[in-house]
Amino acid sequence: MPCPHLFEHDLNLEYVTWEIRTLFIGTFNPGWGLENNNAQWFYGRTARNDFWRILPTIHIGHGLIPGTPQIWKQFCELNHIAITDIIACLDNADENNPAHVEMVNGFQDNQLGNFDITTTNIPAILEANPTIQQVCITRSSMTEPWSTLFEPTIDWIENHPERGIQLRLLRSPSRGARKGVVGNFTNYIANHWQQVGNYEIL
């Protein structure tokens, strides 16, 4: 059977009841119930991903790990942030195929291009939320399959200059992307997001 997103019911921002100014877009979190996936929400594999340390450090001066989805959503509401992922489903993934399980289980983004992919309709989200001013993709490079997957989003932003949406390509918050990091990982990436990625507090 296909591999849907673990938080598929939140991908279209059904959880949001507040004004959104900044939209974060990640990649994928598999919903197969893998033993090594302890994520409770977006960017929730906190043993290997520092998102919930980095972004709160920028806004409130400290991280939110340990944390819960309720705490993270409250933070998002207070700071006019929403979060989703670009991949909604790996359509032709087979949970009974060991090779597929290995590719998905490794949480290696470069392996996901081996599957047929259904994406989250980000342009529809932008249409429905006219207060969005900033779109942040937590990838600083657009190699394949990401350039293809994000193309409709980037095209929509470019084709709607009247909205004035700023696109930010931010360095990955994953601790697997440590190359070039000097000193404390969280502080380094937080500074990088603001000074190189031009992330703004809105």
Automatic annotation (TrEMBL):
Source domain of life: Bacteria
Record-linked Gene3D superfamilies: Uracil-DNA glycosylase-like domain
Species assigned in the record: Algoriphagus zhangzhouensis
Protein name as it appears in the record: Uracil DNA glycosylase superfamily protein
